[in-house]
Amino acid sequence: MIPLLAIIDVRHPKGAFRLWAPLFLVWALLAIVATVLSPILILAGLVCLAAGFNPFRWAIALVALFCSLSGVLVQVQSPRANVLVQIV
Q1: N- to C-terminal Cα separation, the chain
Q2: Of 8, 13, 63, 70, which has fewest CB within 10 angstroms of its CB?
Q3: What Å distances lie between residue 80 and 13, 17, 24, 44, 86, CA to CA?
Q4: What are phi and psi of 17, to 5 degrees?
């Protein structure tokens, strides 16, 4: 499943805040951009196939990479602040 939400939690001595970033809006914009650029992408894919390079393996690998981002948890602690980034 593609990641839909990023939660960014920052805590420091002066206060704390939490930011919810909706990633599903990014996916919608990316779909629009991919649709507009699809003729160029098709042409580039045909050139790669003619050169003996398989662009479909790269496309599948990129999709797998984006889908595996769901569930990532990054936590950074320092004496001045704690930052937590969670991708859901």
Answers
A1: 10
A2: 13
A3: 7, 15, 32, 48, 20
A4: -150, 155
pLDDT tens across 46-76, in order? 998 899 888 889 889 988 988 888 889 999 9
Amino acid in the structure at residue 22: P
Cα–Cα distance for residue pair 74/6, rounded to 1 Å: 11
CB 79 within 8 A of CB 9: no
Structure tokens at 73: 């948890």
Q: For residues 62 and 70, what is the distance between their CA atoms, to the nearest angstrom?
A: 14
pLDDT in tens, 14-50: 899 999 999 888 888 988 998 999 999 899 989 988 9
Contact 70, 6 (CB under 8 A): no
Q: Quick one: which H or E segment has residue 83?
A: strand 82-87
